[in-house]
C-alpha cells in the first residue's frame, strides 16, 4: 500500500518538475554558448588590438607611416567583418533559444492542459 503511494508521489513529482529541468538545461546551454561567443570575441579583438599596437610601434619614418596607414584599411575591414560575424552568431543563438523555449512551452501546455 505505502509502496503504491510513494510510487504515485514520485511519478507526480517527476511530471511536475520535468519542465523545470528542461528549462534549466536550455538556460545552461544558452549561457554556455554565449560565454563561448564572448570569450572568442574577446580573444579576437584583443589580438587585433595588440597587432595594431605592434604595428604602430614599428612606425619610424614617413615610409613606415605610409605602410601603417595602408594597413589600417585592411584592419578596419577585418574588424568590421568580425563584428558582423559576431552579431550574426548572437542573433542565431537568440533565435535558437527563443525557438527552444517556445517548443518547451507548447509541449508543457499540451501535457498539462486537461482534454
UniProtKB/TrEMBL annotation:
Residues 76-107 form a coiled coil. Residues 9-107 form the Phasin domain. The keyword Zinc-finger does not apply. InterPro entries: Phasin (IPR018968), Phasin_subfam-3 (IPR014176). Pfam families: Phasin_2. Keywords: Coiled coil. This is Phasin family protein. The keyword Coiled coil applies.
Amino acid at each position: 500500500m505505502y509502496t503504491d503511494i510513494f510510487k504515485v508521489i514520485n511519478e507526480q513529482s517527476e511530471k511536475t518538475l520535468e519542465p523545470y529541468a528542461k528549462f534549466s538545461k536550455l538556460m545552461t546551454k544558452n549561457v554556455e554558448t554565449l560565454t563561448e561567443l564572448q570569450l572568442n570575441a574577446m580573444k579576437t579583438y584583443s589580438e587585433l588590438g595588440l597587432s595594431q599596437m605592434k604595428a604602430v610601434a614599428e612606425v619610424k619614418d614617413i615610409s613606415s607611416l605610409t605602410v601603417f596607414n595602408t594597413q589600417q584599411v585592411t584592419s578596419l575591414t577585418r574588424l568590421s567583418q568580425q563584428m558582423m560575424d559576431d552579431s550574426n552568431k548572437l542573433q542565431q543563438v537568440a533565435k535558437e533559444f527563443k525557438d527552444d523555449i517556445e517548443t518547451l512551452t507548447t509541449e508543457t501546455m499540451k501535457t498539462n492542459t486537461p482534454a
